[in-house]
């Protein structure tokens, strides 16, 4: 989707407006499908969502490669910081450096902290997201000059959101991973990978970061369906939720450690678990009607190509559903989660 804003006006807005606001001139995104704005469209993988009904509630009703009926969390975060109401994907050929100066997404659906996770569905590994970021930095300096580019790189808010696939697509799906690690050892391995990643982008100039925790991954419709097929009813898989809680505790400790040890860094731990679980347990409180299955198709197991426009079961109003497909929240859920994070962690950067 082309930018609704002229490039020259956008650039002036970024430099003068952000300087006036004084805080965050751009939102820069690393991670998985929770934050991918469409990079997977440009690579050879089955994990894509650049077709309807994905995107039916996005600007212009167009599918962009976001795994949602509309916008995803970085889009709302960008808007809340007075920037554009969306963050473009770096690999999207419809955008250029004038667009990326105000925010850019390097995320790839299906990836994780562990390189083995990205191999499962042939997506962009985290180290490659960093390579794209290095390329972006060089192009930004060529486009704007060192002074303005360095200002954006240093003052930007970096959103880091991944980890769910490391457990669901990797640890619990690949016997080879489980043979190497206990679940606690695997968590420690991922924490080490997260620390290495943060140190790498810190070394490239990043200073303001939000490290996002895991959601209650045992309550994703896909996992509830698996529970049901295994004869355990359609309840959440409590074991997976316990792992998410434990991992989030370790992530929080890592954030504390990095803030103490790395000069000039400001990292916050953005934990969606509590509010997401509240939405799932008490959907009507938040204006939802359905939390156990998703809007798209039967809502039990479909995502990506299984969730296409030909499926007759897709719901008419996604705002009644907590989940859009069997793995991802609706736009409305994302908006509620971002409202929570803006109050509890991201407000530090306003």
TrEMBL record:
SUPFAM superfamilies membership: SGNH hydrolase
Signal peptide: 1-21
Signal recorded as keyword: yes
Organism: Sesamum alatum
Designated name of the protein: GDSL esterase/lipase
UniProt superkingdom: Eukaryota
InterPro entries (alphabetical): GDSL, GDSL_lipolytic_enzyme, SGNH_hydro_sf, SGNH_plant_lipase-like
GO molecular function: hydrolase activity, acting on ester bonds
Annotated keywords: Signal
Similarity field: Belongs to the 'GDSL' lipolytic enzyme family.
């Amino acid at each position: 989707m082309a930018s609704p804003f002229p490039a020259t006006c956008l650039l002036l807005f970024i430099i003068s407006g952000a300087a006036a606001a004084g805080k965050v001139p751009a939102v820069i995104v690393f991670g998985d499908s929770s934050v991918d704005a469409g990079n997977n469209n440009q690579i050879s993988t089955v994990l894509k969502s650049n077709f309807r009904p994905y995107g039916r509630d996005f600007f212009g009703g167009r599918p962009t490669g976001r795994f949602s009926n509309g916008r995803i969390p970085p889009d709302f975060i960008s808007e809340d910081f007075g920037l554009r109401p969306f963050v473009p994907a770096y690999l999207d050929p419809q955008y250029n450096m004038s667009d990326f100066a105000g925010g850019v997404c390097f995320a790839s659906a299906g990836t994780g902290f562990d390189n083995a996770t990205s191999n499962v569905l042939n997506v962009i590994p985290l180290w490659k997201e960093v390579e794209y970021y290095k390329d972006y930095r060089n192009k930004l300096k060529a486009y704007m000059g060192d002074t303005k580019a360095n200002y954006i790189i240093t003052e930007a808010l970096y959103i880091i959101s991944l980890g769910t696939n490391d457990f669901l697509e990797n640890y619990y799906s690949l016997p080879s991973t489980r043979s190497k690690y206990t679940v606690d050892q695997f968590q420690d391995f991922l924490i080490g990978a997260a620390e290495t990643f943060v140190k790498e982008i810190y070394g490239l100039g990043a200073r303001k970061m939000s490290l996002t925790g895991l959601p209650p991954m045992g309550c994703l419709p896909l996992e509830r369906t698996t529970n049901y097929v295994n004869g355990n009813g359609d309840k959440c898989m409590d074991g997976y939720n316990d792992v998410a809680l434990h991992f989030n505790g370790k992530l929080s400790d890592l954030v504390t450690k990095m803030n103490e040890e790395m000069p000039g860094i400001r990292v916050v731990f953005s934990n969606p678990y509590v509010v997401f679980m509240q939405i799932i347990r008490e959907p009507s409180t938040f204006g939802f009607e359905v939390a156990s299955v998703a809007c798209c198709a039967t809502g039990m197991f479909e995502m990506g190509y299984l969730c296409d426009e030909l499926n007759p079961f897709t719901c008419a109003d996604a705002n009644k559903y907590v989940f859009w497909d069997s793995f991802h929240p609706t736009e409305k859920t994302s908006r509620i989660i971002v409202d929570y994070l803006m109050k509890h962690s991201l407000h530090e950067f306003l």
